[in-house]
Amino acid sequence: MRVMVAVKRVVDYAVKIRLTPDKTNVELKNVKMSMNPFCENALEEAVRLKEKKIASEIVAVSIGPKQAQETLRSALAMGADRAILITTDMRTDNEIQPLTIAKILQKTAQEVKPDLILMGKQSIDGDNCLTGPMLGGLLGWPQGTFASKIEVDWANKTIEVERETDSGTQVLSMKLPSVVTADLRLNEPRYATLPNIMKAKKKNPSMSKMLAV
Amino acid sequence: TVKVTMLSATAAVRGVARRSALLSTARNASTLVVAEHADGKLGASTLNVVTAAKALGGDVAVLVAGSGAKGVAAEAAKVDGVTTVLAAEDAAYDHALAESMTNLISELQGSKSFSHIFLAATNEGKNIAPRLSAKLDVSPLSEILEVLGEDTFKRPMYAGNAIATVKSNDPVKIATVRTTAFDKAATEGGSGAVEDVSGPGDAGLTKWISDEVAKSDRPDLASAEIVVAGGRGMKNGENFQMLYDLADTLGGAAVGASRAAVDAGYVPNELQIGQTGKVIAPNLYIGVGISGAIQHLAGMKDSKTIVSINKDPEAPIAQVSDIF
Asked: What gap in Å lies between CA B221 and CA B238, rounded to an integer?
């Protein structure tokens, strides 16, 4: 089974944001950036599927500036097999629209051909909480959002998702391929080991420039 | 497409005014509100979304889908300001599965051409709205706080520390509505016409297995007037009984929690207040053993009065507390 994980480089969750001097946007210069927390959960789940010998390949994908290579190197260090970066000069917190991101991921999925797409439920900069289910809609795949537990039945090509609802939890069974978005309670992400971080430093994500979608 | 036209910081702002003023210019709007319902009753969140729809001017239609839709539709028809109620009585739409609901709503949009489609910014609404938007090839707006015009809205970013003014030029504006930003429409006074509708039925991709719903006599956390919340300082789940007792003494308050308390297993997930949990704005919020991380403040800083009980004088929540 091949898993595609979409990860995003965002302002670190502990940062107190400020506006730019001209007050037109949020200041990003010299601000600490990190992998979006929910994306870490998505990636961790993919790595666990590989450890359980259910997933055979993990492909990490990101859309962002060239510096997002660092985010993808962290993904490789955590256990992704290969990484793809689609570069753009547009701001990914409030300039590029989630629908555009979803369309880029749709095109990427058509090339990567995953059986499962995992991503964070929401990115903490834009707080849109849209990309995952939009991607599900574009691909016509079933979606399991706000997942707190997943179980893949590869033999029957189904996935059972326990998801958080407004009044408790819900369990759904979906046919693969599916899109699943992760919440913090899905798992506890590992820290990449130093040897793996060093190995990842030598890998280069395959990069391509964002084209109009 | 949607463009951000303005951004403002909200670090010092407390208290979001409840928006329910009618726009004088937007008479051409025709809005569909996708209702939530459970146990044969209309969901409370739907009443807040109806108010947001009314702010646009124009007709307000409410869609009720699933088993028992006809009964809930009769209730929705009495809501003040509702023009029409579309009842899709069909078990295929039970549990509000995103795939089936998306197909139903997009088929209705094909025949009725709404200018706006609003859903509550609950986990249910946030599951459906984006998939629907992708299918209709429009950019959805998440968690709108204010309606400034037919195509202009305000929404929060960065855990509510920045407010963006966004403008959409899409043929249909699909948005999820932050319920705490709009008053509830009155449940009487409306005389909407109920219309039976049908759609494509089960999308056949997803099977509902089970729901675990916490049964409680307490008011719904998202709309309660008084909320007592506990954090990591509560030390364990048993200590939360003190908060339930306090809530009872206060005359039926809701009980919530910080993410830390939920993650530690003190209480179940639906009690979580925060940036990605429930956003609340009660008249009175009492936080016990909650430090006030950015992400928690995002979920409660619009409460009218904030009381915090905490041993740590440096706790960030002190900065937004009226009584600490």
From this structure: 20
* Cis? peptide before A98, omega within 30° of 0: no
End-to-end CA distance of chain A: give it in Å, rounded. Answer: 28
Integer Cα distance of A63 and A72 in angstroms: 10
From A27, A89, A94, select the one nearest B167 (Cα to Cα). Answer: A94
Strand extents, DSSP E, chain B: 2-9, 30-34, 37-38, 41-42, 59-65, 84-88, 116-120, 141-144, 146-147, 152-157, 162-168, 173-177, 193-196, 206-213, 226-230, 254-257, 284-288, 305-309
Q: CB neighbours (10 Å) of residue A114?
A: 23
Q: Provide the ipTM.
A: 0.96
Whether B311 has its CB under 8 Å from any CB of chain A: the answer is no
Rounded Cα–Cα distance for residues A173 and B117 (Å): 28
> Which residues of chain A lie closer than 8 angstroms to B102, CB-CB?
137
Q: What confidence tens digit (pLDDT) does each residue in B32-65 have?
A: 999 999 999 999 999 999 999 999 999 999 999 9
Is the separation of the CB atoms in B261 and B282 below 8 Å? no
> Which of A26, A142, A173 has the CB atom closest to B162's CB atom?
A26
* Residue A181 and residue A147 in contact, taking contact as beta carbons nearer than 8 Å: yes
Best of B49, B157, B208 to substitute, by most chain A Cβ atoms within 10 angstroms, is B157
pTM: 0.93
Cβ–Cβ pairs < 8 A, chains A and B: 178
